[in-house]
Specification:
Length: 735
Amino acid sequence: MLADWIERHCWRLVIGVAVVIPIAVGVLVTRGLRRDYTLEAFVASDSDAYREFRGLMEEFSSNEFAVYAMETPDATSDETLAMVEWIVGRARALPAVGRTASIADVPERLRFVLGDWIWKHPLFVDTLVGRDGKTVAVLLQMTGEGATGAVRKETVGALKSILVGARERFPGTTIYLAGPYVTLIDMYDYVDQDLICFSGAAFALILLTLGIVFRRVGPVVYCVGVSMAATACALGVASALDWPTTLVTQMVLILVVVLSVANCVHVGVADDEVFARTPFLDWRERVRRVLREMVAPCSAVMVTTMVGFGSVSISGITPVRMFGWIMVIGLGFALVFSLICAPLLAWSRAPSATARVGTFLPGRLQQLGVLVARNRWRAILGFAVGTGVFVMGLPWLGFESDFVKNFRPESEVRRSYEFISSHLSPTGSMEVVVRRRDGGVIVTADAVGRLRTAGLKVTESFEQVRKVLGLADVLTVGEGDRPTTDFGVRARLAGARSMFGDGAIRNFLNDDQTGLRLNFRVAEGVSVGEKQQLGIDVEAMVADVMGEAYSATVTGLYVFYSTLVCELWRDQIRSLGVTVPAVLLVLVMMLRSVRVGLTAIVPTVLPIVFCLGAMAWVGIAVNMTTAMMLSVTTGIAVDDAIHYLWRFRRRLRETGDYDAALRDAHASVGRACVFTTVVIAGGFWILTLSRFLPTAYFGGLLAFTMCCALAGNLILLPALVMTFKPFGLPVTHKA
């Protein structure tokens, strides 16, 4: 048996663990974790939508931008121009800033000749100057994914330093910094700060809980040591394989620690109970008994949890895949370390020690078990009604793809976007790329004119589309009407190049002049489905106006991110289809009964329904983080059910009495289940204080789901077992 083998070789195995851990830590310290701050690391996937989005960024100028927005007494005054020039001069010095666009970049002779008319031109109004005559902006077009993550991080830090300097130099002026280029780093910063803050708080809570549970140092050191060692080894493997850490994978640290501790708590409680029953035994024999009781359920628990996280890795979204694999590795280390180091629990107990297994909680749990057995149909009916209430909310479950909604309303990020959206144009970007079907040059008067007409028709037809910019807008600066001949288009294009540079032209025309791009500024505030439908409608309308000779393709972050959320949700539904059968298979193999497995799967799946229903009723939308709740919670929620049924079956074989088995399972495993739920739920409830809302939602929902799982395992599961007797009529084995 594995238990006997671990006991015989315990010191060799412990020494092996002691060797592995420093190696992993050494790799982690010397190589470090690769931090990828690029947009690609956040949204990369295997989908056609992503390939179209990447193709757009490579073919035209990057649509990654940052923007300074300022509210002044007069947008055209010399003082305002001086402030803009001060910001532009410092921003241009940054290597990652490809080009700038502001009133300072408009040639002075053009401003003098055209006067106020220029500020009414579509290329400038609501982009560089507001219609209120008080708002001005500096638009920074970044070099995009050509810059490494480290460069992005440094650049955003420099941009924020410029913001601080501008506020100090021009007091009384409202100045904000926003844009997707900046927001992605803000997300990382918020998560990093939360990780430092809440990891410490969660760790303190875990120590407090473990101290209350065990009231001695040995089990506390065992639980914490195993969890920290597993986390270090998982991160060491990630570092050795050069896997990048992203917003999603940063949750690995607290997840591995909390779940490892929860598993170790069951081993520690079993050690206390074995010692309480047989304090006279040699520590080696006690180790064998503990491991014989715990190897199978602990292995099944970790395997099902690994299945839950592993199923996430079928996603086509790269950061989600990495998250799943790192979690599987971390939990694998946690299982191995928890079993190998279990002998230290018995060995560390002083020979004169006395058992410290309290009677209050086991007694109350036994009373709960008896109450459930007497009212099992009421318990089942109560859960059925509760399930119905949560199911009724599912039609209202929404999807969220607005980056800004990831931040709390009072945050600087949220206020920046709201200011820009209300004083200038929305930051949502939808792109339409038009080409000739024969692949020829598209710089013709016909194509430019049709595209301009299509853009205006879209803005008139859809309320969410607030502004459109295209090559026609560049060609009419300082020249009046749009050119009507091919020669006129080429002449104007040459003049625009000399005036604004190649970078400005490449926003709307690719290098080989075979593709034209329309940029729509689109307001948020609609559902994911409406965004996707808007993209379909805009593409159809542009294609209709352009005619049979042209093709039109819609992309851009506005549409792509909504597609990404839906893609992730579909992946999670698919992964749930893998997780539930896999968990059921583990239950059947472990408990050697299909009936018992089916009984256990009910309280395992219901917490997922409760979680989704709670999201719908409270108004928490599905996003990149909450979409992963399905498979993750399935793998975690089944853990206590496995421990409970394993103990129930063993006790039933000993006594032949369902009632006695119920009381024993509630008093022993029920106690450990309460403790592990406190550890898991407490660790994740702390995350609800996060300034990054996806983290807050993930922590709160996971804590809520674990509490639901505890209720299901201590009320619904025993009610089902006592009603349907899935173990059959037991045969009592006398000693």
